[in-house]
Amino acid sequence: MGALIFQSGCASWQVNQLATNLTRAGPQATLDHLQQISPSNRDRAQYLLNRGMLKFYLGEFGASRQDLEQAKSIMTSLQAASVSENLAAVSVNEALRAYSGSASDQVLVHLLLSLNYLFSGDADGARVEMLQANVTMQRLDDGKTDQGQLAGAQYVAGAIYEMNGEYDDAYISYRRAYNILNERKDPIPGALKTTLLNLGKRQGRDEDYREYSARFGASATPLAKGEVEWLLFYLDGVVSTKTDSRISVYSDRARSMVSVVMPRYNPSNYRARFISLAANGQTQRTDIIENLEDRAREDLKNDSAKMLAAATLRAVAKYNMVQEAQDKGDAAGILMNVLSVASEQADLRSWNMLPASIQVARIRVSAATRVQLPELGVTLPAADTLAAKQLAAVMANSLNDDYFTYPVMTPTSVPPSEQGEFNGSSNTP
């Protein structure tokens, strides 16, 4: 058992160190080091989530999908884990439980897979993932907390439906995103306000439209002939990694204070970096649609009472064993006391290579206009060269210079004189 605890803790520590250094090292170097780690079966889902995320940042969408799909399958199978599966966690420590993901993880895996499919050129695959995300959010909705209810997932679903011309479904998803943000008292992104107004007007949602128009102090501005919109998804920063703290709690059963170890997050020092879409003298800056720093802390808070109760039961059981051995004058009691402290470890595993926030922005231009991402030094091809209908999309992240478009960029999308500007930094085949 001691070797099992050591191996589990060592692998977890290695992954956490890589996550902590991801911003500085970058996704490629981090992936190279991560692939040298051999995770145990109980850590497999976390490992695959993180490896899939790194490949996602790098635009290795096929390989990323394989990892994320495997992780999703493992997490689904663990939702109804048996007693024997978790016996070690109950009796020794939480880190020996198979990692099944937080409530947010279970939704985010669908969101990332959806973007994965979209920027591979497969809008249908993206749509299927968002349908699954909605089912997962319904399952997680306990009516008491907002765990697993992600505005970012609803926004991505709305964008996918909108690209497919399913405007009623798009509007419903955008409205759900708004409701989640409103209930949290989070700021409403400008891109969401604009879309609710325009789609609400288009789809004849007159009552909603009047309400949103009054709240936002704006009116619908339908696209003119020959106009399109660019939608930017920006993944910023890296979410925090858990740490631990040892606390003392009073146990009626032990009639004594017992020591337990609990996971926690340090206060967040995340400062969002925003980028923008620019064209023809207008600029639209990104806004946060999902703050994953906040979601990670909320998920841990929602699970804390259950974890504290389990940790206290373990501590009492170990305390009683030590006391019994010491009362018998057994020299092994001292060793048992040492082992009981060493064996109690907080579960510090998480999907800790996610971005700290998901941001969005929208800009309207003529189909022939080339839009810039000024902070990245990128000029996108005109939407009409991508065969975009009314909505094109671009995705970038803060960890490297790569960006990806939908419809997928091809060599013919870029003027021959400028193809060097795009090669190696986009999803150009």
How does the major sheet shape up?
5 strands, mixed
Helix content range of the residues, please? 40-55%
Unreliable segments of 5+ consecutive residues: 1-6, 333-342, 419-425
As a whole number of angstroms, the C-alpha radius of gyration is 24 Å
Strand fraction: 15-25%
**Termini separation:** 50 Å
Q: How many beta strands in the DSSP annotation?
A: 11
**Structural class given helices, strands, pairing?**
alpha+beta
Approximate shape: globular
Mean pLDDT: 87
Taken in chain order, the helices and strands follow as: HHHHHHHHHHHHEEEEEEHHEEEEEH
In order across it, which strands form the biggest sheet? 6-7-1-10-11
- SS element count, helices: 15
Q: Could you outline the blueprint of secondary structure elements for this entry?
A:
Elements: H1 2-20, H2 22-25, H3 27-34, H4 44-57, H5 61-78, H6 87-91, H7 103-118, H8 123-140, H9 151-163, H10 167-184, H11 190-202, H12 206-216, E1 227-236, E2 243-251, E3 256-264, E4 276-279, E5 282-285, E6 287-291, H13 292-327, H14 332-343, E7 357-366, E8 372-373, E9 378-379, E10 391-397, E11 403-406, H15 419-422
Parallel strand pairs: 1-10
Antiparallel strand pairs: 1-7, 2-3, 4-5, 6-7, 8-9, 10-11
Helix pairs in contact: 3-4, 4-5, 5-7, 7-8, 7-9, 8-9, 9-10, 10-11, 11-12, 13-14
